[in-house]
Amino acid sequence: xxxxxxxxxxxxxxxxxxxxxxxxxxxxxxxxxxxxxxxxxxxxxxxxxxxxxxxxxxxxxxxxxxxxxxxxxxxxxxxxxxxxxxxxxxxxxxxxxxxxxxxxxxxxxxxxxxxxxxxxxxxxxxxxxxxxxxxxxxxxxxxxxxxxxxxxxxxxxxxxxxxxxxxxxxxxxxxxxxxxxxxxxxxxxxxxxxxxxxxxxxxxxxxxxxxxxxxxxxxxxxxxxxxxxxxxxxxxxxxxxxxxxxxxxxxxxxxxxxxxxxxxxxxxxxxxxxxxxxxxxxxxxxxxxxxxxxxxxxxxxxxxxxxxxxxxxxxxxxxxxxxxxxxxxxxxxxxxxxxxxxx
Length: 343
Hints:
Blueprint: E1 4-5, H1 16-24, H2 36-48, E2 53-57, H3 60-71, E3 77-81, H4 85-88, H5 93-98, E4 101-105, H6 114-120, E5 132-138, H7 149-161, E6 165-169, H8 173-180, H9 184-188, E7 193-197, E8 208-212, H10 214-226, H11 235-247, H12 252-267, E9 283-286, H13 295-304, E10 307-308, E11 317-320, H14 327-341
Parallel strand pairs: 1-10, 3-4, 3-5, 5-6, 6-7
Antiparallel strand pairs: 2-8, 7-8, 9-11
Helix pairs in contact: 1-11, 2-11, 3-10, 6-7, 12-14
Protein name: Threonine aldolase
Enzyme class: lyase
Pfam family, one: Beta_elim_lyase
C-alpha cells in the first residue's frame, strides 16, 4: 500500500539525486574541520542568505537553541512571539540550555508589533531586572503565515536603537521567500542570525543551518560541541543538503499551489471551515467541528486507507503538502473525507 503522509513536510524522503550524492560524498572528521562537503555546504549556505558564515546543525530546534545560547548570557531575557516555535514547540529548552527568560509579545499569526516589542525592552540597569539581549522573529511562521518584510525591518530598527541582536527562526525560510517572490536575502537582511532547515519541503533527510557573522559562528561552533552536536563524517548529510539548496527551492511554489488546491476542495465539504487568505505556504488548517466527524475517528479511518494525518490541535486539523504529495493524492484524501461524512 502506498502511504500518503500529510502530517508534516518533515516526513519527506530524500530524492534519488540526494541518495546518489550521499553515496558518493567526500567526507572527513568535521570536529577536526576535515570534512570537505560540510565546508562546501556551509560556504554555499552563508552566501545564499547573505551572511558571513554558516554552521551545519542536526535540527531546527538545535539551531534555534544554539543561537540563544550564543547570543545570550544565563539570566538574560529574550523577546519573542507568544505562539512562536521556540516558545510552543521546543520543550522549554531555552530555560534548560541557554538559561534565559522568555518575555512574550502577543502575536498575530507570527506578526509582532514593534511598539509592543520596544515596551518590553529593559532600558535601564536595575537590580530587579534581567538584561534584554535578543529579539526573535519567525518567518515563515508555524501558523502557515508569512510575516511582511516591512514589519521585520521595523523590528530590526527597534533592536538596533537599543543595541540588541535579532535572530530569525527561518525553519521554512525558503517558503517565505517563495511566497513573497523575493530573493531570500531580502528576508534575512534585517536579522543578525538565521536558522533554516534543509529538511521539510527541501527533502534533505537531516540537518539545518545556523548563519550569521563570522565571530558569532565561531562561538556557536564551540557551543555546538558543548551541546553534543560535534559530528564526524557528516559530509554524507551535507551532500543531501547541497542538493536541497541548489535544486529543491523552486519546487516550494508547487507545494504552495497544491495546498491551495487542497483547501479549495476541502471548502466544498459542508461543515469545513477554513480561510484561504491564511494559506501562504504548504499548510492547510481547518475546522471540521460542524461536520460531526471526530478527529480520532478520522485519523483511524484514514490510516486504514494508507493516509497518515495528525489529530486536531487547539480545535484545528492541519494537512501539509510537500514534494511527495500529488494532485491525485489530494483528490483521494478529499473524497475519503467526504465518504466518512456520509456514513
